[in-house]
Specification:
Oligomer: single chain
Strand content: under 5%
Shape: globular
Structural class: mainly alpha
Radius of gyration: 22 Å
Strand order of the largest sheet: 1-2
Order of helices and strands: HHHEEHHHHHHHHHHHHHH
Distance between the termini: 32 Å
Number of strands: 2
Helix content: 55-70%
Length: 416
């Protein structure tokens, strides 16, 4: 990078105009290059994403690709048991926009092609993270850090085998970005983008999509509560938000209803509290933020001994992929020293992200707090899902943005 261009890239963004074109283009190029290296490593080491990714989701995608390439809409899978309604199964990928578009281009996809389509969602989410940081006029280096935390952070990267959950996670930053632009601009065009991205996330109909939808609703309520003139804010945004809600309900009504019909024949029409609660995230897992191989979390010899292992004393059926929190050394230093000890998590624009993170972690802790039992008993939708620890995936978004906020604060003000 030429010296002059590097200086422009590394300079503090203008407080009024925000990032320059060089900063925007440079940041996106660097993030895309990092993603390319991340994706390339799977080819370089002759690896594919294992477990459910291939045992279930790759088989569904292969069926979808063959049907679409033959000009059919594969709403019914004749190869699954004695026949299975693909349209009713949230894990069939038939209503996932990027997978559906890829299926139209691949008649007989390989496992590596499937992984590439899957990993492309992380590039989409990372770009949305960059755009969220740019909106706040934080430093481009902070945006790069946030994007890397999102793409490589433990709560997301360790769960790659659960394809639809990670797809829902990757749509969440895009939905938040569209929502913020819609609320700031009171724009019908941005509102349409907000609706379409929210529908794409919610189509997975999994717990991450459910919690992500609640996070977006929380953002709208937060912005309303913080508006200088709440009545004007309410009056100018309500018609647009009503359009978003109508489009969302119209798009999700049929898939949701037929999924509920399929649940009648399922052995999980509702998850009992005694089944869901042992899927809670143990507080002991928080230590994996500091030590990447604590409990032998990333060992390949089967020596894991942390929460969820048979050696663990309390009832816990999570596993090391569910529990893993490691984000990297720099985010850990920023969050613990600059954020918690330096109290920077509780001031300025970091406050709303800290509340977001706190809510996600409280839900993930499940029965380790009294709150989850109340949510399970009285909050609609919670009893449909097992494993409250899945909320740790939602926590990855505020963790990434808080890392950016704290790095930007350090670049501006120094140490706490």
């Amino acid at each position: 990078m030429p010296a002059g261009l590097a200086r422009r890239f590394l300079s503090q963004p203008d407080a009024v105009r925000g990032w320059s074109r060089a900063q925007t283009a440079g940041t996106l190029a660097i993030v895309a290059a990092f993603w390319a290296v991340i994706a390339w490593r799977w080819w370089a080491f002759d690896l594919v994403i294992p477990w459910d990714s291939k045992n279930q989701f790759f088989a569904f995608f292969s069926f979808l690709s063959r049907g679409v390439s033959e000009g059919q809409i594969p709403l019914w899978n004749t190869f699954h048991f004695a026949g299975h309604p693909s349209i009713a199964d949230p894990q069939s990928l038939i209503l996932s926009p990027i997978f559906l578009a890829a299926a139209a281009l691949m008649k007989a996809p390989s496992m590596r092609q499937f992984d590439l389509v899957h990993l492309s969602h992380f590039l989409m989410g990372a770009i949305a993270i960059v755009l969220l940081v740019r909106r706040r006029r934080w430093h481009p280096l902070a945006a790069i850090l946030a994007a890397l935390v999102f793409m490589l952070g433990g709560p997301g990267a360790s769960r790659l085998q659960h394809v639809t959950l990670t797809v829902s996670l990757c749509y969440l930053p895009l939905v938040l970005y569209m929502a913020e632009e819609t609320l700031d601009r009171a724009s019908w065009r941005w509102g349409l983008g907000f609706a379409l991205s929210a529908v794409a996330m919610a189509m997975s109909r999994d717990q991450v999509a459910f919690l992500g939808s609640l996070a977006v609703i929380g953002l709208v309520l937060w912005r309303f509560a913080r508006a200088p003139d709440r009545w004007t804010f309410f009056k100018t945004r309500l018609p647009i938000l009503a359009m978003v809600a109508v489009l969302g309900v119209a798009a999700l009504a049929v898939p949701t209803l037929i999924t509920l019909q399929l649940l009648v024949f399922s052995n999980r029409p509702e998850i009992g509290f005694g089944t869901a609660a042992p899927g809670s995230w143990s507080p002991m897992n928080a230590l994996t933020m500091l030590v990447p191989n604590l409990y032998a979390s990333i060992a390949t010899d089967g020596s894991y001994w942390g929460p969820g292992d048979i050696t663990w004393s309390e009832i816990d059926w999570t596993d090391r992929t569910t529990n893993y929190l490691y984000l990297g050394a720099l985010p850990a230093i920023l969050l613990i020293w600059h954020g918690a000890a330096g109290l920077r998590l509780f001031s300025g624009r970091a406050l709303s992200l800290s509340l977001f993170l706190g809510c996600a972690l409280i839900y993930a802790l499940g029965w380790h707090t009294p709150i989850f039992h109340l949510l399970y008993a009285y909050f609609p939708g919670v009893s449909l899902y097992r494993r409250p620890a899945d909320a740790l995936m939602i926590a990855l978004v505020p963790l990434a943005l808080l890392s950016a906020a704290l790095l930007d604060r350090y670049l501006r003000d120094g140490r706490p």
